[in-house]
Amino acid sequence: MKHLLQPVFTFITFLFFFTICRAGDFEWVKTEKEISVYERWVKHNGNTVRELKVEFTVLSASAGKVIALLKDPAKGPKWNTNAKKFRIVPTANEAVWLNYVRYDIPWPMNDQDCSLKFYYNRSELTQPVCHIYFEEIKTEKFPLVKDVTRITGTKGKWV
User: Cα–Cα distance between 115 and 131 in angstroms, integer?
Assistant: First the structure.
């Protein structure tokens, strides 16, 4: 069972990094290897679902290097555990890009995927703190796939 939960947990943590909300709404779940996990229960589409927030520190020379990593489709599956497919589609605005991720989920569950828009404010690139936001986007560039469950309602940010 642990092997089944590991990919699902990793997938969920990617989707809810630094979820946009007040930190006080979350309750601490655990901290392991300097990664802290928090949860809260919220209503979504008429259901009560668990929303996660994960906090950790990434050491980088600059926000630009973090953005370059997030935009690199060859490196995406390396840092985004269980990503079977990882596509990036640039837009006319360098500070906005689209991201498709398909996760290899063990049987008996279907694979899952998500379609995201990332964006940041260029003026923050040289500041001590830069926010890189992401949210679910519906686009013809990433159509629904048969027998793959589309993850919806995703939003969050890297700080």
Answer: 20
